[in-house]
Amino acid sequence: MTDTKSLRSRKWFDNLDDPEMTALYIERYLNYGLTLEELRSGKPVIGIAQTGSDLSPCNRHHIELAKRTRDGIIAAGGIPMEIPVHPIQETGKRPTAMLDRNLAYLSLVESLYGYPIDGVVLTIGCDKTTPALLMAAATVGMPALAFSVGPMLNGWHRGERAGSGSVIWQARQELAAGAIDAEEFLEIAASSAPSVGFCNTMGTASTMNSLSEALGMQLPGVASIPAPYRERGQAAWYTGQRIVDMVREDLRPAKIMTREAFKNAIVVNSALGGSTNAPIHLNAIAAHLGIALSNGDWEEIGHAVPLLVNMQPVGTYLGEDFHRAGGTAAVIGELLRAGLLPHPDALSVTGQTIADLYADMPILDDDVIRRAAAPLKPNAGFLNMSGNLFDSALMKTSAIDEGFRARYFSNAEETFEGRVAVFDGPEDFHARIDDPALGLTDDSVLVMRGAGPKGYPGGAEVVNMRPPSYLIKQGIRALPCIGDGRQSGTSGSASILNASPEAADGGGLAILKDGDPIRIDLKQRRVDVLLEEAEIAARRAALDAAGGYAQPDSQSPWQEIFREKVRPFSEGMVFEGATEYRDITNR
Ligand code: FES
Ligand code: MG
């Protein structure tokens, strides 16, 4: 138990050695109604890192939920203080919400470090909010408890489940093929967002919220409760209550988010069919804790794990179905029972082990969450690809459907050779993809470059490129795609993505030209351009002489700072030097 005298907020509110500063610090916190008695009573001050706002609709329900979190904090003897977090809305921010992950991280670190906060509730939800807040918790090192806003209710369109994001990818193809008009496109999009909450598919939001529970950073069973359900408000109260005790117990993030916990999370991610953004974010959180975690670990630990969750984009169901089937808790329980979770003894925010908490969490519908003995797919984790164009890129094997595998990787070696069509960013793709002069066939490989953290600051979610409309009309719904950008977690595409280093950072994709022959080798985990060494060297020299891969100018001061500091996707897109600052409130 921490002696209340050692709480860091005492330095502001009750410092007998410096009564003058204490008076100055304390006066403004009195002017909205806090009393001297409260502030000098030794109660832990709990920040509620508030990610909800009118700019951030996915997390906006946290404004309401925070009222119950406050009640829980007060009931347990703490003092709540709500802290605004820089807004991040996945679908609204231009050029990409990913650009603001590190900005929200940096600003929350300053807020938590610079003010009288003893512990923090992290209100997570929309894609980048979860990693930004967990990264900040890692850096500051004070007790922290994550709390999801929860997924939206299921969306429905004409009697079918309409999954957020996923239905948009399908509707785009229908629009390109002329099967629907713009009006119906809008109607479909709106139907997939029926309530407050985050995306109801197993996109990046559901993935990261589930993984925060798998890491031990959320109360058990909380990640998957739909946002509007009453249990969500009740979980807010329990979260508020628990964080106060975590401060008293001095239960810090570094005790929970260990390398063992990350290994558990990688396994859970495979079972979920989780997003290809997860490795970027978990590698970043780990880096801020000083824990080594690489894309190689993701393949080594995660590849052989079976797919258990039958949720869009790779499966059928949505968030409400997932919750009723037992949610993330049931997935962790099933992995434990099957002996697949590598570290059952990892600690949770409750102070108990994952095994203690989850071993008896049942699957309540085994069509939505499959049993480990009858999975949707074996070997559902990522492949970590490399070759003569990049050092590391990921492929989500759970997203390879049978038709695609039969068309491209049916030989015993699981290799495919094709010719590339190369696009410099999403604008170039949209301008040229339907141009018949490109002459694309089903032997074409679409390559996207200039879409990584430096090239398109933050990295664009654009590697899952659709074929040209003339091929879609022939029934070709997907071509192999490779790129240094990302793809939305709600896309079911088996692209090879997050290629590091990116074209704008000296990566080999920069030397490709339309029509170059390329080989993808799934068994050897390689992607190689089939050019002579001398030709590759000559193209590299020409590129260097021209000053490197051309990228567009920054549009804001932050974009410029970001580009100067950022590390590749494979290293979590963290900032150079930032990971040296660890546990800063305990130094
Ligand atoms: Fe916010 Fe998907 S867009 S969670
Ligand atoms: Mg996204």
Overall description:
The protein is built from 22 helices and 14 strands. By secondary structure, it is α/β, with parallel strands linked by helices. The chain folds into three domains: 43-152 and 199-359, no CATH class; 155-193, no CATH class; 400-546, IlvD/EDD C-terminal domain-like (Glucose Oxidase, domain 1), CATH 3.50.30.80. Strands 11-10-9-13-14-7-8-12 form an eight-stranded mixed sheet. It has a four-stranded parallel sheet with strand order 2-1-3-4, sandwiched between helices. Strand 1 (45-50), helix 4 (62-75) and strand 2 form a beta-alpha-beta unit. Helix 9 crosses helix 12 (259-272). It is globular. The relative contact order is 0.11. The mean pLDDT is 95. The site of FE2/S2 (inorganic) cluster has 10 residues, from loops.
What small molecules does the structure contain?
A: FE2/S2 (inorganic) cluster, magnesium ion
Secondary-structure-derived class: alpha/beta
Distance between the termini: 19 Å
The biggest beta sheet is recorded as: 8 strands, mixed
Shape: globular
Task: Pick out the low-confidence regions.
Answer: none
β-sheet strand percentage? 5-15%
Please give the share of residues in helix.
25-40%
Count of separate DSSP helical elements? 22
Side-by-side strand order of the widest sheet: 11-10-9-13-14-7-8-12
